[in-house]
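Hi R.,

Here's the chain you asked about this morning:
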Amino acid sequence: MTWEILWALILGFALSAVVQAVVSKREMQRLLPDSSPRSLAVASGLGVASSSCSYASVALARSLFRKGADFTAAMAFEIASTNLVVELGIVMALLLGWQFVAGEYVGGPLMIVIVAVLFRAFLRPRLVEEAREEAERGRLGSMEGHAQMDMSVGALRRLLTPEGFTATADSFVMDWAAVGRDVVGGLLIAGALAAWVADSFWRGLFLEHHHTVAKVWGPLVGPLVAMLSFVCSIGNVPLAAVLWNGGISFGGVLAFVFADLLILPILDIYRRYYGRRMAVFIFGTFYAAMASAGLVVELVFRGIGIVPGSRHAKVETATVTWNYTTYLDIVFIAVAALLVWRYFRRGGGWSMLKMMEEPMDHSHGDHQHHHHDHARQHA
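And the predicted structure, written out as tokens:
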């Protein structure tokens, strides 16, 4: 399965790195002043242009909130950065099929809308102020340094410069370092479940033989399975393929993938960032939004007849042969090698990797500017 999706992972992260080299994080908080539809749309767009690492997106959302961004807009950014990024869609298309990609990109914005409505209805100003007070305490989560790193060089035309090449390589390596554990963990867990767990267990858990009930049960149980998997970001997709083959509903797969922001380690980070009350509120509203979005997409897609009829997600590959996958893997391994070489030749090296878990002080906050000045001088 790793060989099947390797080229897609490299392509996805390379495209994401290109986007991150153009879009700056420095002015994000200024663009998210309230929870208006415009601010939520901007937050979603910024999320799509950011790293897909769930831990980094949660840390950056807290950073934006502390700097004055609206809390709802910060949460919209967080959802988009883990559910609407290009690398997720590419891997889903390869393992699950285009229908799931379409469901992800319809359900993701729908989930943001549902969260915004729930926040407007139930989120009280006092709770937001309590969360802000907790956020100002600066308790550490995970990937704090990575969340603050800004590799951007500005205009699209600058991507063709040596500085743009270095910025793209930096983002590529940083993102791989951030999500590598989740990708490896997801592949290992998915392989183990596919090999060792009987199909009858999955069919019973997902009520496959109760067709009407299963459509509702799938989006409800999907996030619960995700919470217990401890795997987030792109690493969820191989697990989603196992669940689909095991009998979970179409909407259940989507709700499972959405729930990378509700795994137990991230729920604990919410508690540290915003306090226990806000962590419980985020869990309740996110869970409701994920399950509702999965169910709505299930009903709509079934209504128009595009839910897949077979369950043959690519979970196991018996042999590696000379086919198009192998050729693509070789090509994109070469691309990855070039970007990694550029990172270590002109980028920040091991020091930047070490900084990924560390919150940056003001001197570190300017690291990227000094780094790119240095790269520009030697390019």
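Residues 115 and 286 are 7 Å apart (CA to CA).

Let me know if you need anything else.
M.
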